[in-house]
Design goal:
Layout: H1 3-18, H2 23-37, H3 41-54, H4 59-71, H5 75-82, H6 84-88, H7 93-99, H8 101-107, H9 111-124, H10 129-142
Helix pairs in contact: 2-3, 3-4, 4-5, 4-7, 7-8, 7-9, 8-9, 9-10
């Protein structure tokens, strides 16, 4: 798959994850994303809290709240939320890669757990060549993990 095709495929996956059959849910997601992009964490938090209560099976609502809590440096809360995303969408490479476990693990110096999370992301999204390079470097630093 050519780089542009991979990027387009990943963009489409994110579009699917952020969409919902309910217009109210779609509007709420849009509002949460706008608030996150504006660093309006209070508004984003209120919206995301309502979303996970109203649509508890929506993986991306949990993922966005995980991201918010990470940005707020509320790592315990972020870790408490992160499990909900892959329970609802086991292929959600974004939850493992960009927003939750990996960054929290690295922020706390837990390279072994970060490598495990990265390796799982590569299973789900094998086209992530930059991530593959990072994993290879980290594995040299911490050694191979057994799992």
């Amino acid at each position: 798959m050519v780089g542009d095709d991979r990027d387009e495929t990943e963009r489409r996956i994110w579009t699917i994850w952020c969409s919902h059959e309910s217009d109210a849910a779609a509007r709420a997601m849009h509002a949460a994303i706008v608030a996150l992009e504006a660093s309006d964490f209070t508004s984003a938090g209120r919206t995301l809290d309502r979303m996970v209560r109203r649509w508890p099976d929506w993986a991306e609502a949990w993922n966005k709240r995980t991201a918010l809590r990470f940005l707020e440096e509320r790592d315990s809360d972020s870790l408490g939320d992160i499990i909900h995303t892959p329970e609802r969408e086991p292929r959600h490479f974004g939850a493992l890669s960009g927003f939750g476990q990996r960054q929290i693990c690295l922020r706390h110096g837990d390279m072994h757990s970060a490598v495990l999370a990265f390796e799982r992301v590569l299973e789900l999204n094998p086209c992530a060549s930059e991530l593959r390079q990072a994993v290879e470097k980290m594995q040299k630093m911490v050694g191979r993990t057994v799992h």
